[in-house]
Amino acid sequence: MIRRKFCLITISIFALLISSFGIAQAGWPERPVKFILGSQPGSSIDSIGRILAKLLSEKFGQPFVAMNITGGALGAFPMTMKNSKNDGYVIGMGADMNFSYTGLEKTADFNFDDFDYLCSIFKGDCSFICSGTREWTNIKDALEDVKAQSRPLIYLFQTSKDRLMMQEYAKQVGAQINCVPSRGPSSIISSLLGGHSDAGFSGGVHYPQAKAGKIKTLTMTTSNRSSNYPDVPTASELFDPSYVMDALRIIVAPKGFPEEARTECLKAISEVITTDEFKAFVNNMHFVIDYHEGEDLQRILDRQVIENKKMLGDAAK
């Protein structure tokens, strides 16, 4: 009897150890992860976000369920992230300016410090574009031309930041401008090709049309000239003051994201973005993988906040 009890106790302890070990080894994620994409279907965030979700799903054996959130002048995505549980099962990808710029606006129901910033993934050729049939050489040339015609430049904007930038540049030239909200990059390209507007903002998805000569890249809003358009000037070369819009696409999470989830997520992302499949996909879209995490990413975003505060202050004068 004593021996039988001893055997039962030993078996129970052994089973408990196996169970505990299994739980410890399971790790994050133990169930599907919601992956919110802060942009319209067909955008760079949507396209690259979905291939990233696919690779992460394959790596972990758990689905990373991609879903698009748009609207609210880029405020809907951050608000969705802010109102999500910080249990480690909601992450998102959007443009840096969703947070470092939109979060500074007086009308925003969130602020820059409401989120955990995990890493950046890629960046693209943010620029002002127009139809390839236009004779303009840059956006300043376009503004001067419509000024000479005594008419406004019809400009399709994607964000409140590129709208404010264009308004500032029009003011420097002394030109009138009519800023019209767009439904995303595809609608901007269609409008320009159809002759319904003069210029618009692109995060870089216009490369195929630019290569075909249907769309012209007028001016880069980025810190430096692009290797895809080496002859196209930056706004900093044309205007003073000028403002930068690099638009890193970043992975964010609700504030208080669990440390285990952060560690595993970053480790996996840093690995999958180096795979041939991911690199080929990004390269084919003519975007650039630009990975930063931790203090490095935080410094970049903090610098943006300082620059954007100055921009908003200048606009209020």
Strand order of the largest sheet: 2-1-3-10-4-11
Mean pLDDT: 90
Helix-strand sequence: HEHEHEHEEHEHEHEHEEHHEH
**What global shape is seen?**
globular
**Main β-sheet, in a few words?**
6 strands, mixed
- Record field, number of beta strands: 11
User: Helix coverage percent of residues?
Assistant: 40-55%
How many DSSP helices?
11
CATH class identity of the largest domain: Alpha Beta
CATH superfamily heading of the largest domain: Bordetella uptake gene, domain 1
User: What structural category characterises the helix and strand content?
Assistant: alpha/beta
CATH architecture of the largest domain: 3-Layer(aba) Sandwich
A few lines on this structure:
The chain is of the alpha/beta class and 317 residues long. The chain is built from eleven helices and eleven strands. Strands 2-1-3-10-4-11 form a six-stranded mixed sheet.
Kindly describe this structure.
The chain has helices at residues 2-26, 44-60, 76-82, 97-100, 139-148, 160-173, 185-193, 207-211, 259-272, 276-284, 294-316, and strands at 33-37, 64-68, 90-95, 115-123, 127-131, 153-157, 177-181, 199-202, 215-220, 249-254, 288-293. By secondary structure, it is α/β, with parallel strands linked by helices. 43% of the residues lie in helices and 20% in strands. 40% of the residues are buried. The chain contains eleven helices and eleven strands. The chain is globular, with a radius of gyration of 24 Å. The strands form two sheets. It has a six-stranded mixed sheet with strand order 2-1-3-10-4-11. The chain has a five-stranded mixed sheet with strand order 7-6-8-5-9, with helices on both faces. It folds into two domains: 33-123 and 247-316, 3-Layer(aba) Sandwich (D-Maltodextrin-Binding Protein, domain 2), CATH 3.40.190; 127-237, D-Maltodextrin-Binding Protein, domain 2. Residues 1-26 form the signal peptide. It holds the Pfam family TctC.
